[in-house]
Amino acid sequence: MVAVPELPEVEALVAFLRENAVGRVVTRVDLAAVQAIKTFDPPLTALGGLEVTGATRHGKFLDLDVSGLHLVVHLARAGWLHWRSGLPTAPPKPGKGPLALRVHLEEGEGFDLTEQGTRKGLAVYVVRRPADVPGVARLGPDALEVDRETFAALMAGRSGQLKGALTDQTLIAGIGNAYSDEILHAARLSPFKSADKLKDDELIRLHDAMRQTLTDALGRQVGQKAATLKGEKRSGLQVHARTGLPCPVCGDTVREVSFADTSLQYCPTCQTGGKPLADRRMSKLLR
C-alpha cells in the first residue's frame, strides 16, 4: 500500500493540527469503531470541554495534548485523518463505514479518524503520559534525530536484514515499508544485506540517505492540507510501488519481492549488482 502513514506524513499532520486545532476546545468525541479505542481510564468523554494545547509526534504515533491529557493515535496501515467543516451534530452509527473516531471542536469544525479495508489496526489511546502507550514506550530513537555514531552502533547490534532493521520501530522510530525502500535505493544497498555486515562507507551512505529521504519528504508535505498528503507522498517515490517501471536513476526495471502480507521494491542495477533478488517463498535470498 503506497500511502501508509510514516514519519513525514504524521509530522505533516502534526503541523496541520498545530495550525488548525491547537487553541480550540474539544466539544465532543464520538467513537464509531469500538475496537479502535485501547484505553478506558481516562475515558474519551474526559476530553470534552478541554482545550487542545499542543500536537507532536512519537515515531509514527500522533499525539494531541488536550490540557494535559493525551489523545494518541496510531494510524496503522490504512488509517487517516480528515479535517471537517460543518460536522453533523448527530452521533455516527457504530460500525458503519470507515469512520473510527470523530473529534468535534468549537465552531462546528473537527476531524475524523478513518480506516479503510477489513483489516483493522488503527489504535486510539487517551492517557496521562504518552509513555503510557506501550508502542510509544518501546520506540527507538527518532529516525531524524539519531546521529551517525548512534546509527552505526544500532546497525552493528542487529544481525537481520537491512529492510527489517529500518522498519523495526524499537530500533529506529518512524520508517515504514515505503521509505525503507526509498532509503535503501538512495543508499545503493540491497534490502537483504545484513545490518551488522555494513562497511564504514555503507553506513555513512545509509545514514545520509535516511536523513535526506525523510527530510525531502517532509519538505514536500509539511504545509499541505491533510487531504493532499497521500498524493504528495506518491509523487515523490522512486522505487516503492513502482514495480515494472523504469528506475529514475539508471533506467533499469524496478523489481519486487512479495511476502505474505507486504512487498518491497528495488532496482537491481542500483542496489544488487544487476542481480534480481529471489522470492523468499521459493528459494534462499540473495545476500
UniProtKB/TrEMBL annotation:
Look up keyword Hydrolase and say if it applies.
Answer: yes
Q: Which UniProt keywords apply?
A: DNA damage, DNA repair, DNA-binding, Glycosidase, Hydrolase, Lyase, Metal-binding, Multifunctional enzyme, Zinc, Zinc-finger
Q: Which InterPro entries match?
A: FPG_cat, FPG_N, H2TH_FPG, Ribosomal_uS13-like_H2TH, Znf_DNA_glyclase/AP_lyase, Znf_FPG/IleRS
Question: What SUPFAM superfamilies is this protein classified in?
Answer: Glucocorticoid receptor-like (DNA-binding domain), N-terminal domain of MutM-like DNA repair proteins, S13-like H2TH domain
Matching CDD domains: BaFpgNei_N_1
Highest taxon listed in the record's lineage: Bacteria
Q: Which residues form the FPG-type domain?
A: 238-272
Q: Which residues form a coiled coil?
A: none
Q: Which reaction does it catalyse?
A: Hydrolysis of DNA containing ring-opened 7-methylguanine residues, releasing 2,6-diamino-4-hydroxy-5-(N-methyl)formamidopyrimidine
Residue intervals passing through the bilayer: none
Pfam families, per the entry: Fapy_DNA_glyco, H2TH, zf-FPG_IleRS
Q: Does the keyword Flavoprotein apply?
A: no
Q: Where is the Formamidopyrimidine-DNA glycosylase catalytic domain?
A: 5-122
Q: Which PROSITE patterns match?
A: FPG_CAT, ZF_FPG_2
The cofactor required is:
Zn(2+)
Assigned protein family: Belongs to the FPG family.
- Protein name, UniProt field: Fpg/Nei family DNA glycosylase
Source organism per UniProt: Blastococcus deserti
